[in-house]
Design brief:
Length: 213
């Protein structure tokens, strides 16, 4: 196998300049997300979320973005999961969108706030029924002896909810990440990447500046 230290490529797809920026970061994020969707990237809404547990140990995992606007970025999860437990101790969170095929990435830093049960229920009921059932079958992040046992739990839940709607589990919820910093990265030739960071001021306005690569 070739040495991983020799694996590299140049980034020449596009640039990012001051004229490309928007007054606030959400319009630019929307444009970039649309570009990712239009480019038929696999899972364009996939994002890595990083949390920190009560011992100070960071942890990362990939989830799907399920909504965003100027108030924040929304995702859903089992409230007994590790990510939810981490957030109960420390609500600080970081999101990362890795749009490699476009030589782009976006990093979001903010605070995770639980969303209302009404919004959670509305989204849960919009999910495919097998996904709803899977939420009942899985105690997310907890140990299980075998995949067979998990499938058995799924079959039991499927039989239980064979008729009618699947109710919202009490242990299922969602979070809105209220951002205070959003960074946009566009790969550049010779590692001279374009980086701009938006920072929210105490007055609630957004300021942007270029960062060195």
């Amino acid at each position: 196998m070739r040495s991983i230290s020799d694996i590299r490529r140049d980034y020449t797809q596009a640039g990012l300049d001051v004229d490309d920026l928007t007054p606030e970061p959400f319009a630019l994020f929307e444009r970039w997300l649309k570009n990712a969707v239009d480019a038929n990237l696999a899972d364009p809404t996939a994002m890595t979320i990083a949390t920190v547990d009560k011992t100070g140990q960071p942890s990362q995992r990939i989830v799907l973005l399920k909504g965003f606007d100027e108030t924040g970025f929304v995702f859903y999860t089992n409230t007994g999961s590790k990510k939810a437990q981490d957030l109960s101790h420390n609500s600080k969170i970081s999101l990362h969108f890795p749009w490699h095929m476009l030589d782009r990435q976006v990093k979001v830093s903010g605070i995770a706030q639980q969303i209302s049960s009404v919004d959670v229920a509305k989204y849960f009921l919009s999910r495919p029924k097998p996904s709803q059932i899977a939420a009942w079958a899985s105690a997310q992040s907890r140990p299980i002896n075998s995949k067979q046992l998990l499938m058995q739990k799924f079959a039991e839940a499927k039989a239980k909810f064979a008729k009618g709607e699947v109710p919202l589990p009490s242990f299922w919820g969602g979070y809105r990440v209220v951002a205070h910093e959003i960074e946009f990265w566009q790969g550049g030739e010779h590692r001279l990447h374009d980086r701009f960071v938006y920072t929210k001021t105490p007055e609630g306005n957004w300021q942007s500046e270029r960062l060195m690569p």
